């Protein structure tokens, strides 16, 4: 079997197109422009790249983008004061604090200081609780993007065996909640899981969110399974020249694509969907704040 490639880049472009159309309508009919504030503390190179592309795409869909760049040694009370200001700013509908934060800042405290209604990353404890109890919430962007691609590919996910490898608060756990919400039978695997290859082999849907380059080989994948590779790992690529690198996922793509029914590539799979879902969440937050019908 040769897997169908799930084109996250095209899917994301489509989502952004729909968000853009809705934003244009909001502006024209209501005179409202959704606004997303992104807060970056420090100069982590990867975070800078993410923040830049988030800002660019926010503007491209017609929203207002507010970027706040703070020094690496910013005091916690200064950051909390900025979040308080954004919480009370009616032009700001979504607030994202780029993670990871420098070590001296308490990540939980900072995230939980964001107004849950503006928490477009879905990491606030209230949103985590709402998601876990099946109530309307802000859903974390990366798992939401994975779910959208899975629904698009399968139609109904009901009754399918899903294995999520990784149990982080930002990917693994919310992914498992979403799959459970769609009536999958869900297993969450992690670094202490016994017989991981056999656990993964039982899955109709595999979501890999481990952070280890090409850890899941093709012989762990059940024939015809759908593989969603969340991992983004930069590895040396001497074949491209001295000092060159390339991005790979947590799944060994070539061997997995030979047995899977469908697979997301890295890059061009989950990554682009994450930003598209951030924009969709900002639009949703804006509609809710103004008592308007939410986008589908
Ligand atoms: P974390 O490091 O927070 O979590 C990794 C998880 O993998 C942990 O639960 C850990 O288990 C588990 N794990 C580690 N080693 C093994 C192993 N040998 N066998 C089984 N499980 C293992 O990572 P994140 O969830 O934040 O991110 C995961 C990956 O996804 C990364 O590559 C990251 O770059 C990428 N990512 C991509 C995004 C995108 O937009 N595409 C967005 C966010 C992340 P334990 O809990 O036991 O330690």
TrEMBL record:
Domain Tetrahydrofolate dehydrogenase/cyclohydrolase catalytic: 6-121
Catalytic activity: (6R)-5,10-methylene-5,6,7,8-tetrahydrofolate + NADP(+) = (6R)-5,10-methenyltetrahydrofolate + NADPH; (6R)-5,10-methenyltetrahydrofolate + H2O = (6R)-10-formyltetrahydrofolate + H(+)
A Pfam family per the record: THF_DHG_CYH_C
Positions in coiled-coil regions: none
UniProt xrefs under InterPro entries: Aminoacid_DH-like_N_sf (IPR046346), NAD(P)-bd_dom_sf (IPR036291), THF_DH/CycHdrlase (IPR000672), THF_DH/CycHdrlase_cat_dom (IPR020630), THF_DH/CycHdrlase_CS (IPR020867), THF_DH/CycHdrlase_NAD-bd_dom (IPR020631)
Binding locations of NADP(+): 166-168, 232
GO molecular function, one term: methenyltetrahydrofolate cyclohydrolase activity
Pathway: One-carbon metabolism; tetrahydrofolate interconversion
Domain Tetrahydrofolate dehydrogenase/cyclohydrolase NAD(P)-binding: 140-288
EC id: 1.5.1.5, 3.5.4.9
The entry's keywords: Amino-acid biosynthesis, Histidine biosynthesis, Hydrolase, Methionine biosynthesis, Multifunctional enzyme, NADP, One-carbon metabolism, Oxidoreductase, Purine biosynthesis
Self-association state and partner proteins as the record states: Homodimer.
Family named by the database record: Belongs to the tetrahydrofolate dehydrogenase/cyclohydrolase family.
PANTHER family, per the entry: C-1-TETRAHYDROFOLATE SYNTHASE, CYTOPLASMIC, C-1-TETRAHYDROFOLATE SYNTHASE, CYTOPLASMIC-RELATED
Function field: Catalyzes the oxidation of 5,10-methylenetetrahydrofolate to 5,10-methenyltetrahydrofolate and then the hydrolysis of 5,10-methenyltetrahydrofolate to 10-formyltetrahydrofolate.
Protein name according to UniProt: Bifunctional protein FolD
Species, as recorded: Falsiruegeria litorea
Lineage: Bacteria, Pseudomonadati, Pseudomonadota, Alphaproteobacteria, Rhodobacterales
